[in-house]
């Protein structure tokens, strides 16, 4: 047994008989601008189309081909961010092309999406923020924060993005599909209870997680976007029905996501953060999932697995410095899907990802992996720094549960 696994195992054996003291580290965090050029990134070579997913494997359900629910707001996307902004409308066509490259055309069931009801959005966001943001969008163009341009079409597009997650889960619940991919923009995981930030207006994954929890179900959220999912952490900080897991570059935008951010008074240990140094590779995140997250999932027993699937941890991405490849995302998706109690209980949401070639390859690889198929335009990465940070995260979890 590896030292990481030993630590993780000991963590789960701890009893919870005290209240942990701590406050939400998000308040007063040193938030920096996220939209800054990182060092020049190598271009992902266009290997798309040279490899196809293995076709027509047996369904995870045991008959026919596996089915992927796709819920997207691409056809109604009117969120304009202006020239040169990395969070741009071309991201969604690139993501869809990735599904085709992966040979999944026949495996996709595209569902109609609808705007998220106000009540569902208001369960995760402050009512005053929602009214203000809608008004400012409609009066636009302008900015929600320094990084987040908005305009007259932005609010409707954001509501459709959040509604797409609800539609995807409904389709999974009523059908025999194996997984769902919510291909939407704007992304959501930086949007906190009190307000949007960092390209995000409404926290899409949080809207669905809250909806599921309100129905009495438990949720695991895995956020592998290169930026910390501060908004999702904020919303579920004190909620034991959601196990929130984030791996991200640190220090980096938005300035949160340290290992010692482990959850609030009512949810000690329900937040797990892996803060990675620049240059980290896919093998470190896989080990983290195996050695720290898997034992926590064993205890949490989620009914649903939601994924904040950002692809800006790809080595070609212009906004960050991790070194993952599209094959790493396939491996992460395979691991994360195994955390679900049964097929049809995994919903991946597109979050970040700003190199369109990398987004295309990574969406294809991830979607194929969610169906148990294989599409790998690149090879997995390994050998980067960050393994010691897994121990840091495991020890922080020990302390959180020990004090609870
Ligand atoms: Zn990101």
Task: Briefly summarize what is shown.
The protein is an alpha/beta fold and 404 residues long.
Distance between the termini: 27 Å
Q: Give the strand tally.
A: 10
General shape: globular
Order of strands across the main sheet? 2-1-5-10-9-6-7-8
How many helices does DSSP assign? 11
Oligomer: single chain
Return the average pLDDT rounded to an integer.
Answer: 89
Low-confidence stretches: 14-58
Task: Explain the overall architecture.
The structure is a single chain. By secondary structure, the protein is an alpha/beta fold. It is built from eleven helices and ten strands. Strands 2-1-5-10-9-6-7-8 form an eight-stranded parallel beta sheet, with helices on both faces. Helix 9 (326-337) links the parallel strand 9 (304-309) and strand 10. Helix 1 runs parallel beside helix 11. The radius of gyration is 19 Å and the shape is globular. The relative contact order is 0.19. The model is unreliable at 14-58 (pLDDT under 50). Zinc ion is lined by residues 225-227, 310, 312, 351-352.
């Amino acid at each position: 047994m590896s030292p990481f696994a030993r630590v993780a195992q000991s963590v789960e054996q701890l009893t919870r008989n005290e209240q942990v003291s701590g406050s939400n580290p998000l308040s007063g965090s040193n938030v920096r601008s996220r939209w800054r050029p990182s060092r020049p990134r190598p271009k992902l070579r266009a290997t798309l189309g040279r490899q196809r997913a293995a076709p027509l494997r047996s369904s995870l359900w045991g008959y026919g081909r596996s089915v992927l629910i796709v819920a997207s707001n691409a056809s109604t996307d009117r969120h304009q961010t202006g020239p040169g902004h990395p969070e741009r409308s071309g991201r969604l066509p690139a993501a869809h092309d990735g599904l085709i490259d992966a040979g999944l055309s026949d495996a996709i069931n595209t569902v109609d999406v609808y705007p998220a009801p106000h009540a569902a959005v208001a369960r995760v966001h402050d009512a005053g923020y929602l009214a203000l943001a809608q008004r400012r969008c409609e009066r636009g163009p302008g900015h929600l924060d320094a990084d987040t341009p908005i305009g007259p079409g932005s609010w409707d597009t954001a509501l459709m993005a959040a509604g797409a997650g609800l539609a995807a889960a409904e389709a999974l619940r009523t059908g025999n599909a194996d997984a769902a991919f919510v291909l939407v923009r704007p992304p959501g995981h930086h949007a906190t209870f009190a307000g949007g930030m960092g390209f995000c207006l409404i926290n899409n994954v949080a809207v669905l997680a809250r909806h599921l929890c309100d129905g009495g179900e438990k949720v695991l959220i895995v956020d592998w976007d290169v930026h910390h999912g501060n908004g999702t952490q904020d919303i579920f900080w004190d909620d034991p029905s959601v196990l929130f897991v984030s791996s991200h570059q640190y220090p980096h935008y938005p300035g949160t996501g340290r290992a010692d951010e482990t959850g609030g008074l009512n949810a000690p240990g329900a937040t797990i953060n892996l803060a990675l140094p620049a240059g980290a590779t896919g093998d470190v995140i896989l080990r983290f999932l195996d050695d720290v997250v898997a034992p926590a999932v064993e205890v949490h027993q989620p009914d649903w697995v939601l994924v904040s699937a950002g692809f800006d941890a790809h080595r070609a991405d212009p906004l960050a410095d991790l070194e993952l490849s599209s094959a790493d995302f396939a491996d992460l998706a395979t691991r994360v899907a195994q955390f679900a109690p049964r097929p049809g209980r995994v919903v991946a949401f597109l979050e970040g990802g700003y190199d369109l070639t990398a987004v295309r390859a990574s969406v294809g690889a991830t979607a194929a992996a969610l169906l148990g198929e294989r599409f790998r335009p690149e090879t997995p990465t390994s050998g980067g720094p960050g393994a010691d940070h897994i121990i840091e995260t495991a020890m922080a979890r020990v302390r959180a549960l020990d004090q609870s």
